[in-house]
Every structure is written in C-alpha cells, then in structure tokens.
Amino acid sequence: MAAPLGFRSAFCRAATEAKEGMLMRHLFTIALASAAVLLTQPGEVSAQTSGVTSPAQAFGFPIGADYSLINYDQAQEYWRRIDAESDRVQVVSLGKTAEGRDQLMAIVSSPENLAKLDTYKSIARRLARAENLTEAQALELAHEGKPVVWIDGGLHSTETVGAQQITQTLYELVNGDDAETTRLRNDLVILLAFANPDGMNLVSNWYMRNADPAQREMRNIPTLYQKYVGHDNNRDFYMSNMPENININNALYREWFPQIVFNHHQTGPEGMVVFIPPFRDPFNYNLDPLVILGLDGVGAAMNTRLISEGKAGSGRRSVATYSNWTSGTLRSTALFHNSVGILTEIIGDPTPYDLPLVARQQLARNDLPMPIAPQKWHFMQSIEYSLSMNRAVLDYASRNAEAVQMSIYRMGANGIESGQRDSWTTTPKDIARLEAAARSGPAFAPTGARYSAGGAGTVINPTLYDTVLHAPEARDPRGYVIPADQADLPTAVAFVNVLIKGGVDVERATSTFTVGGKTYPAGSYVVKTAQAYRANILDMFEPQDHPDDIPFPGAAPTPPYDVSGYTLAYQMGVKFDRILDGFDGPFQRVNDVMAPPPGEMSGRGRAGFIISHEVNNTFIVQNRLLKAGAEVFWLSDPITVDGQSFGPGALWIPAGEGVRDIVAKGAQDLGVDVHAVASAPRGERLKLAPVRIGLVDKYGGVMPSGWMRWLFEQYEFDFDVVFPQEIDAGGLKDRYDVLVFSTDSIASRRASSQPAPETIPAEFRPMLGTITPERSTPQLAAFVRAGGSIVAIGNSTSLASQLGLPVRSALVETGPGGETVELPPAKFFIPGAIMTNKVDPSDPLAYGMSDTVDIYFHNSPSFLLGPATADASVRPVAWFASPDTLRSGWAWGQAYLDKSVSIVDARLGQGRVFLMGPEVVQRAQSHGTYKFLFNALMFGPAEAKAKSAD
Fold first, then answer.
1. What is the pLDDT of residue 673?
2. Less packed terminus of the chain by CB within 10 Å, N or C?
3. Gyration radius from the chain CA atoms
C-alpha cells in the first residue's frame, strides 16, 4: 500500500487533517463529551464578581482541576468574551498560525491606559531603540511611560501548565479589584499571549478524548505539536521560519518592545517544583551586562515571592542546565534585544502524580533555599505557582517602573555608542592569546601591598591589555557589507529578512560605493552595528566562541544548553565583509522584509535557456518546469556562453510551450538570472524527471523530518510521508524514486515510546512502527539495488553498515578488549558547531557549490571510505581537510575528524545511497548546504532513468 490511510503528500495527513480542521473536530467532539463528566456542581463555582465570567463558569471546571484541560478553541472564545465584558482588556490577533488560527494576545491595563495605548507603545519603542535620545529625555519618557511586560504560555504544548495558566492570569488581572491587581493595571501594560495555539488544541483534545479520567494521557500524541517542528519551535526565534514565531517576534521587537519577556515552560528539576533564573554560566559574550543583572533582579523577586507564600521547591543556576548562550529560544532572543528574558521550568500534569524524594534536593543551599517535601502533586498547585510567579514579575516591573524602562534604554544606548567607536568583545580565545603572550614575554613582578602572595602569580603585565586584548585588528566591526554581486543573492536577501524580522535596521546602497578600498555595487546591503540591537547583529555575523566547559582534566565536557555555535551568516552561506572603521555611503533604509531583486533575463537566442546552479531558488524554477512537462537538463561541465560563465550543473532548458513564462516568472519573483541562447550547449548532460519522494517519519513525529517537510514545501518539491509499516511491506520501487531519512528517523536522540495500537484511534495505527535491520533493511536494499536512491542524514547514516556499504566510522577507537568503540565525550565532543569542509564541485551532489562550505556538525557521523566491492562503491563529496576546521562554536577533539569524509556518494547495485553526516538542513537554517540534499533528490533518480534507457 502507499502511505497509510491517506497520510501522504505535503503533510503526514494527520497534520493535513489538523490543517483542515478534521482531526481537531474529531478530538474536540470527544473532549466535549468527556468534559461533561467533570462539570462542577453549581455550588462549587465561585461567585461572579465585577461582571466578568470566570473560567469555572465558562468551562464547567476551574483552571487547574485534575484531569481537565481547555483547548485553544475554548480559550479563544473565552478571551473574546472577556474582551466584550470588560474595559480593562483588548484582545487582538498577532497573526495566523501554521494551521490558520488567529494567535491571540490580550492587552491588559486600566481603561485610562488603554485609551492612551498608542502613546505608551511609542514611548516603549523610543526607549528600546534609544535613537537620538539623551539620558534626560529618556528619563522624561520613562516617567511618562508605562513598563510593558510580556507573559506567554504553551509554546511546548505538552507542557500544559503554561497554556492553561495564561487564561487564569487573564481572568485574575481583569477581574481583580484588590490593591495589588489595581496597581498592576494602573502601572503597567501587560501582554498575555498564546505561543502555540495549534498545539494547544491538539494536546488538550488528545488528553480529553478518553471519558475515563484515569485513561487520559499526552505521552502518545500521534503528530508533532507544532505543524512542522514540534519542540523545535523554541529553536527558531532568531530565524523566524515558523509563522507563530514570526508573529511573536513582530510583537516583541517591532511593535511593543517589552522590557520583560516571561516565557513559561515545564520540565521542573527532579525532586523540586520550578527552575527560576538566574542561569548558569557561560552567558553569550555579546550580551549587555545590564540584561544579566536584570535577570538576577527579576529572578530574585520571583523566588522571594514563592518562598514568602510558603511555596517551596524553587531553585536557580546549578539546579538545571539552562544558560544564556544560544539565541534561538523565545526568552534568549529577548536578551539579545535588551529585554529581560525569563524562563521558568515547572513540574505539573493534569493527571496527579507523586513528587519524588531526591536526597540531594533536601539539603538547602544558595541555589535551593527552601526544599520541598515529597507529596502527591496536583495540577492546581502548578497553576498557583505560575500565578505567583506572574505576579512577582509584574510587581517587580510596577515597583521599579522607571528603572526597567531606563534599563532597556541604557542597553540600547550602549549598543549605539559601542557601534560608533572602537570596541572589543572578549572571548575565551582572546584570553588564551593573552595568557600565551604573558608566558612568552618578559617576566612581570607586580609590586605593592595590594597584591597578596597567592594573587600575584595570576597578575600579568597590564600593557598586554592594549596590545593583545585591545589589538586594533581584534576590534568589533562597525558594520557589515553584503555585496549584491554574490552568486546566490536571493539567499543573502533571505538572511537580511531574518535580521529585519528581528527588528534590526538594514540599509541598501542606491549606487556604487567604496569602503576600505573595496568598491561595492548598487543594491548591496549594509548593516551597521551602532544600533540598540547590536548584540543580535554580532551574534548573527560573528562566530560563537564557546569555552571549554570541562569540570576537571579527563572529564567529559559539560554540554551546552542546546548548541554551541550557530552563526547564521555562515550557515546560510552569505558572503559579507566586516568593516572595522566608521563608514557611510549612499544608503537607504529598508523598511520591511522584501523579495529578492528580480533576476536578469539576458540573451536573445530562441533555442532555450541556461540558469546557474548556484542559486537555491533555481530548484523552485526547476520543479515548476518539470511539473509543467518541460525538459530540464544538468550540464556536467563548466561552460561559457555569450561571455557568461556557468559552473558544473548549470540548467539547460530547451524552448517549449510555457517555458519562457515559467523562467521569466522565476526571474521576476525569485531573483534567478536566466540567459537565452541561440543553440543548445554541447557536452555531457543529465536529463531530469519529476521524482517521487518518500520522506520517512514515525508515530509522534520526527522533528528533523518535520523541518524537511516544511523545506520541501518552500522549494516546491512534491513528496509523500512514509511510515515504517509501508517500508516493511516492500515493493518500494513501484511507488518511490528516492527515500529520505532525516536524523532520528531510525534511531532517536530523544527518548520515545509508542502506544499499543488498541489504545489509539484506528486512523493513527498505520503510523506505528520503527525502522529495523530485520524487517526494514532487506526492503531498503532491494529498493536501492533496483535503481532507487536513499538519502540518509545524521544518525540515519547507520543504514550504511546495514546495507553493507564500504564505509566505516572515523570516530572510533580500540577498546580495552580489542573491540571497536565510539570515541567517548572526554575525547571527542562537538555539541552543535559550524565546521569548514572541502568540497568537490564537479560531483553532481555538489553542483552549484564552491570548493569550501560551512557545514553544521552536531556530534555527527563522519566516515572513512573502503575499497569497492562487487556491487558497491563509494566516493567522497565533502571532507575535513585539516585537524582544525572549527568556524563557530565548540569542537573538543576536532582533530579526530581530519581527513574523514562527511558527504558520501555510494553506489549499490543500480541505485545510490547518499550519506550526509552533517545536518545539511539544520532547522531550516543551513541554506548553504541545502544543495547537497536537493541535488541528491534529483541526481539519483535521473541517473537511474538514464541507465535504464541505455
């Protein structure tokens, strides 16, 4: 059979049903019936006050009741009802979600403040951007303005506390007439938002579908709780790919400019209740120290309030792994925009459970001042803790109203001032250079009573501060120039759009200009660092230099929170120049995100068209042509036509019906240059054909596969989602030309389980199963030997050994018993970093690429190639060419990668297996390596068809 029960094409059909509302309606119907069982008796419902409907009255149970969740549809209706009932709130839509829902935000304040909302928004904006403001003027604005505080919930939808508490928070802030609540409304503009409405509906409906409360669970949800990326929605905030995150970033950094951003999450430390900032080291060296101290202040207020109310079990710093290194999460992106970004991680579940006894968590310490006793834990307790933390944050902003507004101004002013003068950001590599210079220089003997005998040994010559740490060549850039004449300008524009979506000011040159002796063409983009969001700019252009976080010599490294390196300009393959001195030119501000400049339609020939392979958007044009039935070829050799040079893989499109219209639209809308020629080019060529792509997924959803699903849609690749049962059934070549296995499609870095079939609705049962050597590998081997292609990425390259390909891991050593074992983390550990590879651009997998590329390596596989066998051979496409290839991040033991191969083109029988150790799609950020994947999708099937035709 094909993908089961219609779970095919642009989504795995469970998600397609969600998009169309079918799945949600199905589960919601069951949920309503189940909720009826839990209706509170009338006498148990709190009396209504101030004319505002309570949640208990609206839903039949209070928020936090055991075994009870409201879904987003219910919440949305309730929020709009509160909006109609009260003059203390305005409910607005931030925009549409991936499934087409309105993403609601409530603005809570006093009626008088709401009447002046535009004034307060303008003040918040002026203070945050800090442009053309003196300290005195800023103080006047802070005195007139109101702090803006953002609180959200439900980003990770199975973390149900956050999604539920936000509605109770709205009710209490709107309904309450006590002194504190009244003061909060008078002093603040409070923004309450749902971070993931689609996921809230899915999770709540799934949990409530069972009439028997004891059977309710959310461990076995069939699909990702964000349409494409699930939990990775909180790794997308500097990139802004997902619509919900675009909506949130627009509200935070382009419209409202809150001084505090509170992002609720739910994975509390074991034996405790909640993690609250401050965070452990290291923090990102681009951040303003004031934002770190702001975290200390707000976090202290939150911990103090909980303990004052007798709510034990809150901890900070060392009780959890969270840090302020990466900028990809909602609250950490806020830090790079000078907002105090708060993350809490709480325990809780609508199904009561036992809070465990953990011995070490019963001893009070600085980071856990008030331990909590083991007990039966109820959902309402988590809601109450969340409400207390919300009030603590709001109370802090209220009592320090001018201070929090002036803090965001001062951070913005610091960014502007630092970008206007010579400045330096000190990183671990700088300290290593400083210490090396001290060791190699003359001995330095400090004098004076201020030095103790023990301290003097650490003191070095102070002249090294200027000559090493503040060496002129080590300065931070005053700005960056992104030349308009780079090979893939549309991708560069996509990068610029990311910056704009994050509130960064970008300029475009209206004519040629010269900086530092280099002339740039009109249309080049300029990003100056003299901006309030300077930290974000540096983080997107400059390499991250993560310290060697190793507890003691020989110990395994302490993993960073998420990843160690992610420089977006590197990942996207954008060419740019760092400008160290002040500069100006014929620059005009870019006001909003934009399409790439139209490509050039050149040449007058009528035989057909040639398009460079270097532009990622070329694949969109290619796919449109193939769907229209046009002929498309890849030219194997470099060619020069009418004075224009094209590298290997250039597209040759013979003239035909509708062809000119398609390529002309590609030029106009996608920025692809098209050259018309008078005669067909000579030389070897490969004819392309529409490909039948099978994207492998599993029950519950695989996040890397979800990212690929989104990416395929953006580049207009048609595909079907394939589940293990279909693979095990065999006959794959009858339905597919290429199968794609993302990271975690076979093994998984996250613990996962699957439900018993009888416990889930029948329509989801065909999604169950796993890829196994016993059942799946024989079918995959038959598929490839018959001419099919497999693309295996990351840990899914384990298929290589199962298929008997002549490759072996480069990241192994001989164990004590003579066995081959993986290198331990104490010797090799690269937790998400950007590395440089050499590339063979003449290989079809690398068409359109240069001879070096930045790849994303996340403790990924790398290979040593063996000799060919009777029916299998391998060749390198990309490889590590030296012992030191780190570009950004942390690469402990990177020398083990030297001379190993990262991208492998393998032949097996009549087909191909493409092994891609690095994360070539990495959360839809690594545009610079997309071509490896896109070329593989087309090359293997095209070659197989060419051979069969012979």
1. 98
2. C
3. 29
Do β-strands 674-677 and 608-611 pair in parallel, antiparallel, or remain unpaired? antiparallel
CA–CA distance, 280 with 294 (Å, rounded to integer): 15
User: What integer is the mean pLDDT of 462-491?
Assistant: 97
User: Which two tokens mark 900?
Assistant: 């190993």
Tokens 């809230």 locate to 200
pLDDT greater than 60 at residue 26: no
Over the stretch 79-106, which tens digit does the pLDDT of each residue have? 999 999 999 999 999 999 999 999 999 9
Distance, in Å, from the CA atom of 267 to the CA atom of 247, rounded to the nearest integer, reads 25
Among candidate residues 789, 843, 722, the one with its CA nearest the CA of residue 13: 722
Contact 620, 674 (CB under 8 A): no
Backbone phi and psi for residue 722, each to the nearest 5 degrees, phi listed first: -120, 135
How far is 199 from 225, CA to CA, in rounded Å?
4
* Band of residue 773 on the pLDDT scale cut at 50, 70, 90: very high
> In the prediction, which pLDDT does 789 show?
98
Confidence (pTM): 0.94
Q: What is the pLDDT of residue 449?
A: 55
DSSP letters along 717-774, please?
A: --EEEE-HHHHHH--GGGT-SEEEE-TTSSS-SS------GGGS-GGGGGG-----TT
Question: What type of residue sits at position 842?
Answer: S
Query: Which residues are CB-neighbours of 867 under 8 A, at least 6 positions away?
Result: 806
Alpha-carbon gap, residue 353 to 87, rounded angstroms: 40
Q: Which H, E and C letters describe 268-331, residue by residue?
A: CCCCCCEECCCCEEEECCCCCHHHHHHHHHHHHHHHHHHHHCCCCCEECHHHCCCEECCCCCHH
Strands 738-741 and 693-696, how do they pair? parallel
Is residue 847 within 8 A of residue 941, CB to CB? The reply is no
- Region class of 191: left (phi > 0), else alpha (psi between -120 and 50), else beta: beta
Q: How far is CA 917 from CA 229, 788, 807, 925, in A?
A: 21, 20, 12, 16
- Cα(46)–Cα(712) distance, integer angstroms: 51
User: Average pLDDT, stretch 616-645?
Assistant: 97
pLDDT in tens, 194-242: 999 999 999 999 999 999 999 999 999 999 999 999 999 999 999 999 9
Residue written as tokens 């229209």?
Answer: 628
- Nearest in space to 834 (alpha carbons), one of 932, 920, 946, 746: 920
pLDDT band at 870 (very low <50, low <70, confident <90, very high): confident
SS3 870: coil
Strands (E) in 566-697, as ranges, are 577-579, 587-590, 601-602, 608-611, 633-635, 639-641, 644-646, 651-654, 674-677, 685-687, 693-696
Which helix (H) or strand (E) segment holds residue 345: the answer is strand 340-346
Instruction: Report whether 558 contacts 476 (CB < 8 A).
Output: no
Cβ pair 929, 856 in contact under 8 A: yes
Tokens of 191: 């923004």
Predicted pLDDT at 750:
59
Structure tokens at 78: 């309730």
